Batch of 2 targets.
Target 1
Amino acid sequence: MLCPALGYGLEAQFGAFCVFSGRMGLKLKATPYELGLMLKALEAQTGESAADAVALEAARVKSGNDEDKLTAYVMAHSKTHDIAEALRKAHRARKIATALLIGGAALLGALAVMSALLRDGDPALNIFWLLSALLGPATVALLVWGFVLLRSSGGLSSLWMGSLTGFMTKRFSPASAANTAATQVVTDQHIAGPLGRWRLSVLSHGFWLTYLISAGLVFVFIMAFQRYIFIWETTLLTTDQAMGLFSALRMPVAALGLPNPSVDEIRAAQYSGGVLPAGQVSQIWAQFTLALLLILGVLPRVLLWMASTWRVRGLLACQRLTATDPFFAGIAAQIYHPRPDTHIIDDDESPPAPSRIGVPAPHEVTALAAYAVIGWELDDEQLAQLGEATLIGAYEREDALISALQQSQSNPAAVAISLTNTPDRGTARILKSAAQQSQSRLTFILLGQSKLAQRFSKADQDRRLADWWALLMTLGISPENIILPEVGSLAEQGTA
Amino acid sequence: MDSQTLKIAVVGHTNVGKTSLMRTLARDGSFGDVASSPGTTRRVEAARLSAGGHELVFFDTPGLEDSSGVLAHLKAQIDTGIDWIEAIAALARQTPAQTTFAQEGKALRQVVGSDLLLYVIDVRDNVRAKHRDELEILMRCGRPILAVLNFVAQSRAGEESWRETLARTNIHAIAPFDTFVYSEAGELSLYEKARTLLDAFSPVINQRLSDIRAARLSQVRAGAVSISQLAAKLGGLEEKVDLDDTLGRDMKADALKKSAHQAEAKCKNKLLKTFGFDQALLDLEALEMEAGLWEVDPFDAQTLADFGLNTTAAAATGAAVGLGIDLLVGGLTLGAAAATGAIVGTGLDAFRRYGRDIQDRLAGRASLKLSEQTLALILARQIALLQALSARGHGAQSKIALTSAKDLAEPLLPAARKALKGQSSAALVDDLRVLISGRKAAIGGAS
């Protein structure tokens, strides 16, 4: 009943009781954020992408913003893999580790009080010794906690928790990437970073709260059956200083209306000369001790525990699955831009294309003026390159080209083509037809090298030139009938 | 709502960028084969994209290499008394052994089975008779056509004549979209125009539009976070050195540089992954900055000067180039002074650092850190890479030109300074996003 009543923070500290009371399963649900961290840790460990087609599809059909879709993704992913189970095991290990620490705290508290009270029938009980046993360790630990918080170091608690969680996970789970990742995530979430710091604070305050409550309960239990005479003595302080100290201790107790010894009773309790004070009302001292335990021990710890819990809650609220994290952004990108499922519909059954014919070194350029030139798919800029050549016309239709060739009375005739045009099958068919219909041996002028250079990389220019060369070779055109006016660049290109 | 499947055939002449368009639309740089040779795509290949329960299936088709021949063949069939659809279907049914137009047959087979045709045009080419023949064939297929003007980022000189030709063919849905130089607006416009042609497919197209917007937003945001994390990490890199131990200081300086290089490489890979450019697929050569700037050493004085970064202040500390030593000045180290100022704002964390600095000073140590100039340069090229990736289509094969790095280095100095003062990545991300988004707007305007 304690867990629901005190909420999240106390649940963390008293998880042990939940574990052993059989309610463990209800408390071990991993958050979507933790599941997301699991995927991240797994990918870092295995080097394999966390992408899961089913989970991605689940995210795509989920309406909402990035967070909704990413949540849908990690939830679906965890269902189809052993991630949630591994995380559940790691959480169980963490809870058992917490339980062991809390159990240890309860035992320590009981032992501390028992060591102060149960001393072979000696009825004298030194109030300083008793307060040291009850409040001393917790007070020292409080100072250590403050120091650790300032140093931003995990401190001993993190060491214990990390070691214990790791040990428990190994104890309960077989070694696997998922289990290792789960341990890392749970450990990081409870030890590392600002969240870990405040969660350890919750744990630390819970530990000492348990210690104090246990010590208080054992104290009450022993007081119910044993009778003691409360004394005080000190060699460190003078009587006046000790009285001043007691006055200071009485103030908050009195302010809250709780029982406290009077000045006379305090003075009477001073142990001197080996004589125990007579006629003491020991209940007052017992109640005073309990009040001090509550005010100086339990109350600060409860307040600090609440503050730490508040910080933990705040930090947990900031843990969202958003695409601002590069890892989750990668998943979001795959949700919005799924990697396409590619497949071949209509495969190519024709034999592979023959390997390209190398482009031989160019022969010396013949003066273009000697040719009657017919342009094929040329623009004005390229036609201008023909310079002093006799231009018959520029054509784009097969019948027009052949007609021009047939009507040409000049010899020799040349067809000017642009390297920026692709030497495709259509072009090959038409040029083949032109070569066959020509009355004389046709010459081809390849224009547009500089324009080609503007479009393509050097490798692609070489490839294009080689493609044209190969096409002309298959038409039976000899290299001396191929002219490249921009021959300077050809010389650099060599063979493709 | 019933699930929809929208089938889109990508068609056009050979070597106009059909496969590149597929790569860019599908964000898959490994799709199909791309080359400047004719007939590179000799088969029909599909890319299925999921869109919120709906599907878009793109079909890459072989180029219509001999459209004039095909048109002549079809016209001959029409003369026998059959209609265009039947003639096209008959050609599409023929096997390679039965026809010389097997490649065109494959493309037309896919065209008649699709809901939309994306007719890809290389606007650098003049309109030729073969293109008019292609358009006539495609118009006879009875499918809506959206013309995609490719390579518009390189030249728009031929755009007008293409638009006029398309209009004469009664194609009025035209989308300028460069497959190499990516523009989100261009892609959105392409889908919006497709929607006007395919009213019945509005749900799937709307979903795709929404996905594109969300993805781009998350990518840029994640990129900014990656770079701010790098800034915070590099800003926090430090080695404790004894000022009298020159040899030890040099060794630690080398270790610091190595850590910086590793962190930068990691961030670069993150950016590539975020934008869907698989590093294994991306030619390493393509990562070279223009004029080899990616290889320049950010710990080199001349490099820093080339980027307009003054290094005299850092050099005065006696540290190696690109590094700075946190010295005691006027009772406070630079870090401590920063920490003192930050105490007010950030409290505990700043207090911790202040304490550490005092401890180090008492122990006779100093901190060796990156100089703000070097950090600014590293951040500049990461942001430039992010911007380049934002504007890069998956069909692109050219080198990534990180031209904006030079403009960014100096404006990044304040952010670098903050990172060195220990500002968290969360606080830095806004500074960086301003620079990223500012440049992004400029890119959008240019394209």
Target 2
Amino acid sequence: MRSFRRSLAVVVAASALLVAASLLVGHGDLGDGALRATFVELRATRAAAAFLSGAALAIGGLVLQTLFRNPLVDPSILGTTSGASLGGQLAIVAFQLAPGRLRPAFLVPEMVLPIGCLVGALVSLAILLAVIRQTQSELAVLLTGFLLSSLFLSAGALLVSLAQDSWELGRAVVSFTLGGVGGAGSRHVLLGLPLVLAALVALWCWARPLEVLLSGEDEANTLGVDVPQVRFWTVVWVAVGTAAAVAIGGNVGFVGLIVPHALRPLVGISPRRLLPVAAIAGGAFVVLCDMAVRAAPFRGELPLGVITGLVGGPLFLILVLRSQRAAARA
Amino acid sequence: MPDALDVQRVSVQFGARVAVADVSFTAPHGSVTAILGPNGAGKTTLLRAVAGLARYEGTISIDGIDARQLNRRERARRIGYVPQQSRLDAPLSAFEVVAQGRYAHHEGLGPLGAADRAAIEEALRRADAFGFAARSFVELSHGQRRRVLLARALATGARLVLFDEPTASLDIGHVLAFFRLVRELAAAGGAMVLVLHDLAHALRFSDVAVMLQGGRVAACGAVAGVIAVDPVRQVYGVELVPDGALGFREAR
């Protein structure tokens, strides 16, 4: 317990320092007294958006790894983020193309994207769960995730091509597809904050049965866990968190893979302890990646997912090789 | 007082294959019941049905209550289950694994209470697993893992405990210690139901035996009457050798 508190304190302090440092990075001179407040506000909003996106993706990865008893899964590898992204793209296109009289009065434009992302994430996870009911094979789960991811990305690319017929629509879809928190405003943060917080709290409430589920469904069942209920609600809340993350920052991959994996040696495997730490560390990791985006010496801004992909891809490969070696030793 | 376990005309079917057919037996409080039979006789399937892991026809009652009327938590507090092998491959400590046994007692979201901790420590001591409570489950030997799984079942506080081949992977010292513990638990009013392969262990340590063949009961009753010349020849195709020590030879 003492080492957990120490790890939590270190992660909180490091994250706070990172967020503070992120206010100092970016175009624009903070020495300019007239613009300083504006720059700080813009950077703080951007840091908050990056933090929320990273927190949601990290807890999503952690929970899916626990649920599937597989350290190699995360929302991007299982196709959840690309499902959410496709849902968001479809929502943008449908909203823009639908005649005004067909749009429900309660549906304000800011709500369209998160709702689309949520539906996309839920559909993606539902397909995956249906496959898992047929087979427990780790390889089958991963292959299904890759397949779903490719399918959704291809469908998204098709949608981007079709959307080019209208300049404004094409620009909106491309901008969302590339991802990043550069365009995130306070409305994005205010909309994402309750969703991410709700997902974090709800998933923490399911952490105890999730921990028992590490022993497999049969043993969890005999120990009193309502396995179908746990599976259903955790998938729903992961989808909510992932949808919020994608709506804020686009399709940012590998965060859910890297962060829990880095924390387990420090905090242990218990999801009850890991969840809050993963949320903070995940947020800080994406803030750090966004700082790299801002500091990169390019004329245009790199998509955030490029940075997380460059770090996450090789790490994923290392994890796969390590997992194969461990399986060979067993 | 109703029996701890009352199994009446229970059948389990997987598609067209009947794994358990019309099995009936009771396990009273204070008894050790051995479920015997050759490979594929339906022993583990029967145990899984009692544990709530396999759909069945017929009636299974726990302390006089139809098991179908119990919710998951109630059932977990009444039935402890020790599987043949755990699917746990995550590095939880042995203490954390045993703490899973308190899940059904713990409604809130907070940390374990003093009563939970006392139950876990007592279970670890009884299963002789206290010495490696802090070690990772996946780093333990098979025998040590089995003792941790036994401790987890004891931590549930259930008086009916089901064991699926509990002595596999245990050295002879821990086999004897395990059966001593089983007898102690039974003497304290518990009902122990064990799937066993070793007839010598069943004869020495159990009171009642149910011998299955092809999913059906071939013999049931006091253990000395079940592990006898005729049932053993009929079910296993071997002859009991009455030479003072328990031994077998192939049937002619």
